[in-house]
Every structure is written in structure tokens, then in C-alpha cells.
Design brief:
The chain is an alpha+beta fold. The protein has one domain: Alpha-Beta Plaits, CATH 3.30.70.100. The chain contains three helices and four strands. The two termini are 14 Å apart.
Length: 106
């Protein structure tokens, strides 16, 4: 199995950080119950993105486990309601996937 790093990059609307924190706390609790791996969050300080960008990273043990975990999350009605609330907070988002290099030991 190859570890997969999932990076979610989101632009938060001006003045919406406090609202995001409240929803994110609830999302994290549900995601943990579903079996999502722990997440690391970063806020842009300098670089390609402005300081209203948050980057969320998770390390999944395989692409298959990531797919199964995310599917469970998307099908959870409580989590779906919370994700819907993010529509007025997150202006745009994109997802990137990474694998270690080299992905398999030589």
C-alpha cells in the first residue's frame, strides 16, 4: 500500500473565520467517529495564497482507504449538513493528492 497525502486548500471569506471554527470543530468530531485520520491545518502566511487560505492535510494509509472514508463521510447526514453550511464561508477550494517519493522502497 502507498500512503496518500490529501491536501485540501480553501479560501475563507473575509470575516468568516470565527464561523468556520465553530463548524470545523463539529466536523472534526464527526470525522473522527467515521474514521478519518487526524488532520493538520495551516493558514497561509506568505507565498502563492493570501492569508485567508487554510490548508488541511490528512495522511491516508491508501487510496482505497481514502475513498472508503470519504464516501462514509459524504453519506453521513449530520456531516453533510455541516458541509452545506460551509458554502457561505468557503469561497473556493481544491484538493491535491500526493504520494511519498519514491512511493515504493527501492
Amino acid at each position: 500500500m502507498v500512503v496518500v497525502i490529501m491536501r485540501l486548500i480553501q479560501r475563507v471569506a473575509n470575516g468568516k473565520w470565527d464561523e468556520l471554527e465553530v463548524i470545523d470543530k463539529k466536523c472534526t468530531e464527526l470525522e473522527e467517529k467515521i474514521g478519518y485520520p487526524p488532520k493538520k491545518q495551516y493558514r497561509s502566511l506568505s507565498g502563492a495564497y493570501d492569508n485567508n487560505v487554510v490548508i488541511i492535510e490528512r495522511e491516508w494509509q491508501s487510496l482505497s482507504k481514502m475513498e472508503k472514508g470519504l464516501t462514509k463521510g459524504y453519506l453521513d447526514p449530520e456531516l453533510a449538513k455541516l458541509y452545506k453550511k460551509l458554502d457561505s464561508i468557503i469561497e473556493w477550494q481544491k484538493m491535491e493528492l500526493y504520494v511519498p517519493h519514491p512511493p515504493f522502497p527501492i
